[in-house]
Fold this protein.
Amino acid sequence: MPGDADKGPGFRQDLIWRLEAAAFAGFIGLMRLIGLEAASNLGGWLLRTLGPRVGTHKVVLRNLRIAFPDMDPAERDRLALDQWEQTGRTFAETAVMDRLTPASGRIDIVGAERLEAIRASGRPVVFVAGHMANIETMAAVLVASGVPVQVTYRAANNPYVDAQIIAARARYGIKLFAPKGGDGARELLAGMGRGESVALMNDQKFSEGPEVTFFGQPVNAAPGPSRLALRFGTVIQPMSVVRLPGVRFRVTAHEPIALTATGDRQADIRRGVQAITRFIEDRVRENPVDWFWVHKRWPDRVYRELDPV
């Protein structure tokens, strides 16, 4: 816990965390007060206005140049602006996710029969997705489907904010979290051994992962989903989210990815990682405005090779 005499942060850091948490709680309270649509609109307007003024906007533009080198520069600029609005909407909607579930009528589900088959089988699968649109809606769909699933997440650096995030997710039924690291890996393995599926994001930079191709450029991607699928003899179940007009979403359970154990484990894992990365690339190409463009996805050498503008 924060403030532990031996391992906790100092007084100054703890105070900063508490102030940040108070501001975050105020933001959540405001979003819940004004309601889903107003919160989404406000969040979108704020980041569309402020996003292009921060240094991260350069990362967005460089990412778009790597992914879409032949796109007209003016179109890339419009896309960079539009993606800020999407990100702002998603951030604000997180505060009211209990009002944005399948029961709300705002989520169209494609491939629901696949989720029903997974639930009925009692066997675990490995759900994978990228950070597209409001990815929390995917978790809400999995909860509503009745599939027992552990949803992984990256804990916020501020433990008080992290506790609020967990509470916000608990309001719409997400209760099984497995933190990353050694303890998290053991939780995932134990859960799958009990027949629980796992859900993992697989589109973030992972320096120690196998090198595969993403938009024609090398990237390293996390091998965890492929390792788990091979270990438990199950499939990788890709999921995607698309934002629709009017604070609505389409969540799709796509054709499963089946991995074959050939005896060359590393090669088998790499094929799985490439298949997942190709799936995410296809989804980004279909709806580029929905992707989370603000993180540095490619290795530094790819950015260095960009022509100066």
Residues 11-34 form the longest helix (24 residues). The chain has a mean pLDDT of 91.
